[in-house]
Amino acid sequence: MDKEFALGSSTQSADQQPLVLVVDDNEDNLLLLAFVVEQLDCRIVTALDGKTALDLAQDYHPSLILLDMMLPDMDGIEVLSHLKQNPITKTIPVIAVTAMAREQDRDRILLAGCNEYVSKPYAVDELEMLLRSYLD
């Protein structure tokens, strides 16, 4: 279910490229986010559910996590809680990518510990600038 692949055409070695964990149960959203990450010359690993996301974050320690808030096995807040309680993953920046667009949803997600919040549908240019600010 999980995938890891290097994107971009840089001459950097793979271990020098930032790794981004993208978590979303919708394959189309994963493709869109992978496209944005590709523009930043990063490696990417993907997960379709929270359990896989937690395992991958622990094993790979990505530079950044893009986390959907509505997953099939646990919600994004629960995933975030586990990430923040784990000494290995607690410092990884997490950007919520979600269809939950109400102001109270945004506030709840940020209070739970997400560094940033982006609502769907994404403005690709804005998302790319946000990711760049965390990866540069």
What does this structure look like?
This protein has 136 residues and is of the alpha/beta class. The chain has one domain (3-135): Response regulator (Rossmann fold), CATH 3.40.50. Helices cover 40% and strands 21% of the residues. It is built from five helices and six strands. The chain has helices at residues 27-38, 50-60, 76-85, 103-111, 124-135, and strands at 3-6, 19-23, 43-47, 64-68, 94-98, 116-119. A six-stranded mixed β-sheet has the order 1-3-2-4-5-6, with helices on both faces. Helix 4 links the parallel strand 5 and strand 6. Helix 2 packs parallel to helix 3. Mean pLDDT is 88; it is low at 1-12.
Total strands:
6
Q: Tally the structural domains.
A: 1
Mean residue pLDDT = 88
Major β-sheet, in short? 6 strands, mixed
- Helical coverage, percent range: 25-40%
Q: What Rg do the Cα atoms give?
A: 14 Å
Poorly predicted parts: 1-12
Query: CATH homologous superfamily - what is it?
Result: Response regulator
Q: What is the CATH topology classification name?
A: Rossmann fold
For the termini, the CA-CA separation is: 29 Å
> Can you tell me the CATH class?
Alpha Beta
- Count of helical stretches: 5
At CATH level 2, the architecture is 3-Layer(aba) Sandwich
The fraction of residues in strands falls at 15-25%
Helix-strand pattern: EEHEHEHEHEH
Structural class assignment: alpha/beta
**For the largest beta sheet, what order do the strands appear in spatially?**
1-3-2-4-5-6
